[in-house]
Amino acid sequence: MTPAGRLMALDYGRRRIGVAVTDPTRTIAAPRGVIERPRRGAPASALPHALVALVAEVEPSAILVGIPFAMDGTAGAMAEEARTFARALREATGVGTIEWDERLSTARAEREILAMQLPRAKREQKGRADEVAASLMLSAYLRSTATSTVGADTEGP
User: Fold this and answer.
1) Any bridge partners for residue 96, and if so which?
2) Which of 134, 107, 129, 108 is nearest to 118 (CA)?
3) How far, rounded to the nearest angstrom, does the alpha carbon of residue 43 sit from its chain's CA centroid?
4) Range with the lowest mean pLDDT among 17-21, 127-131, 153-157?
5) pTM: predicted TM-score of the whole model, two decimal places
6) What are the Cα distances from residue 17, in Å, to 101, 148, 153?
7) Is 122 helix (H, G, I), strand (E, B) or coil?
8) pLDDT > 70: what percent of the chain?
9) How far is CA 40 from CA 13, 36, 55, 69, in A?
10) Which of 8, 2, 6, 4 is nearest to 89 (CA)?
11) Alpha carbon distance, N-terminus to C-terminus of the chain
12) pLDDT at 122
C-alpha cells in the first residue's frame, strides 16, 4: 500500500526523464515536463539535481518508475538500468518507488500527441513524448488501483 498523497511518475530515458504528477487526491495525472540527464552515457545512478529538487518540491508519497520490459516480459539491459535509477532515486530522496511496466508507453504517447492536433512545433518539442508517456503510465496506475480495491491503493504489477 502506498501512503495517501500526491504521486509522481517518471519515464526514464538515457537523455531525458519525462515527469507527471497527480493532484493530492490522486484523481488527475498531468504531465509536468522533462528533466535532462546529466550527460549522455552517465550511469543510471547519476541523478539530475533538478529531479531531486523537483521531488522535494512536489513531495510525492511515492514515485512510479517506468520499467521498459521486453515484449516477452523479460527484463533486458534497459529495464535493469531503470531499476538502478529507481534505487538511486529512492536512496537520494527517501521516497518509495513503484516499478511499472511501461512497454509501448512512448508509442502510445506519440499517438496521443498526434490526436491532440497540436501545431507541428508543439508536437515535435523535445521531451513532449516523454512527459506524455509518464502521464499515461500514471493514469494507468490510478485506474489499476481504483479497480483492484475500493478506497485503497495497492502496488502496481
Assistant:
1) 62
2) 129
3) 18
4) 153-157
5) 0.77
6) 16, 28, 25
7) helix
8) 73
9) 10, 10, 22, 22
10) 8
11) 12
12) 55
Four-CA torsion 157, 88, 83, 123, nearest 10 degrees: 90
Torsion-angle region of 104 (φ positive above 0: left; ψ -120 to 50: alpha; else: beta): left
Quote the CA–CA distance of 101 and 11 in Å, as a whole number.
11
On whether the CB atoms of residues 47 and 88 are closer than 8 A, the answer is yes
How far apart are the C-alpha atoms of 113 and 110, rounded to whole Å? 5
**Among 65-74, 96-105, 143-152, whose mean pLDDT is lowest?**
143-152
| Segment 93-107 mean pLDDT | 83
SS3 121: helix
Adjacency order of strands within the sheet including 16-22: 29-36, 16-22, 7-11, 62-67, 96-101
C-alpha neighbours within 13 Å on the C-beta side of residue 78: 15
Contact 130, 34 (CB under 8 A): yes
Look up residue 84 and give its three cell numbers: 538502478
At 27, give phi and psi (nearest 5°). Answer: -95, -40
CA 99 – CA 96 distance, rounded (Å): 10
